[in-house]
Specification:
This protein has eight helices and eleven strands. By secondary structure, the chain is an alpha/beta fold. The protein has a single domain, classed as Ribokinase (UDP-N-acetylmuramoyl-L-alanine:D-glutamate ligase). Strands 3-2-1-4-5-8-9-10-11 form a nine-stranded mixed sheet, sandwiched between helices. Strands 6-7 form a two-stranded antiparallel ribbon. Bound molecules: 3-hydroxy-5-(hydroxymethyl)-2-methylisonicotinaldehyde (PXL).
């Protein structure tokens, strides 16, 4: 069997378990080859009080050109944290070039959390993210990102399923066939993932809310979803597996007092992601 390849267009961050640092091991555990296409290089992620941030935009075109020259192809493309407006054009060009027939594109519109945008996300960059959504087959926003993409005021967890469905329907009409809105609070103890596939009744995947929010959770969830889809699973099952895996990692971190901005201790459970051959 020829192994599948996924291009991870995302930042490379040394400490904090986000983006490529955590997505590559997750998809590798799922027997998929990870190919990093860096958008920025950081020492730690932007939730730390200090970080080194090197925007990789000026070098991305040359980096990607070699893949074009080599006539490479990918089975999937996953995009995440983007560092500049120009980068979105580069990413769109990448998707057009490499999104060969049958390959899918997962866009995680990484922009913010808890109703706030990350410090590096300017209003112009947020606007530009709306262009990228059109090229997504699968979109994995959290509630903050969904609201920002739809120009709706953020209310913490306070959206009904009907409102969520209406927003997903509008968003889906722009491009993405599958959308999961991740990490929506439901009461004090539950987290809901709202799963929308065009032409189907929406479904939800619930998880227990354990401790506070942890950085990098969205990246872990996107990686598991992309890997599951590449391995032939349906969207709802993929989200379920992603939520279960993230919950396990979060529970481990809580039990062991791992600080919230250190990300998810995926290393402890990577093996659970490996499907045995029939
Ligand atoms: O997990 C999202 C993310 C990705 N990359 C960087 C970040 C963040 C969230 O803070 O700072 C660099």
């Amino acid at each position: 069997m020829l192994q599948k390849k996924i291009a991870l267009i995302n930042d490379i961050t040394g400490f904090g378990r986000c983006s490529v640092a955590v997505m590559a091991p997750v998809v590798s555990a799922m027997k998929i080859q990870a190919v990093a296409v860096p958008t920025a290089i950081l020492s730690t992620h932007t939730q730390f009080p200090r970080y080194f941030f090197d925007d990789y935009t000026p070098r991305m075109r040359d980096y990607i050109q070699t893949y074009k020259d080599l006539d490479m192809s990918f089975d999937a493309i996953a995009t995440g944290f983007l560092g500049s407006v120009d980068q979105v054009d580069i990413v769109v060009d990448f998707i057009k070039t490499f999104g060969k027939k049958g390959a899918f594109t997962l866009v995680d519109p990484v922009m913010g959390d808890y109703g706030r945008l990350y410090r590096t996300y300017t209003p112009a960059l947020c606007d530009k993210m709306k262009d990228l959504v059109r090229f997504a087959d699968v979109l994995t926003p959290n509630l903050t990102e969904l609201c920002s993409l739809m120009d709706v005021d953020y209310r913490d967890g306070d959206f009904s399923n009907d409102e969520l469905e209406a927003m997903c329907r509008r968003l889906s009409s722009l491009g993405p066939r599958h959308i999961v809105v991740t990490g929506i609070r439901r009461g004090e103890t539950q987290i809901m993932n709202f799963v929308f596939s065009r032409g189907e009744a929406p479904r939800t995947v619930m998880a227990d809310r354990i401790g506070g929010d942890r950085s990098g959770t969205g990246d872990v969830i996107s990686a598991v979803i992309a890997g599951m889809l590449l391995n032939g699973h349906g969207f709802h099952d993929s989200v379920k597996q992603a939520a279960e895996f993230a919950s396990k990692c979060i529970a481990y971190c809580e039990e062991n007092d791992v600080p919230a901005h250190w990300g998810l201790g995926v290393e402890m459970y990577l093996r659970d992601l490996t499907e045995e051959e029939e």
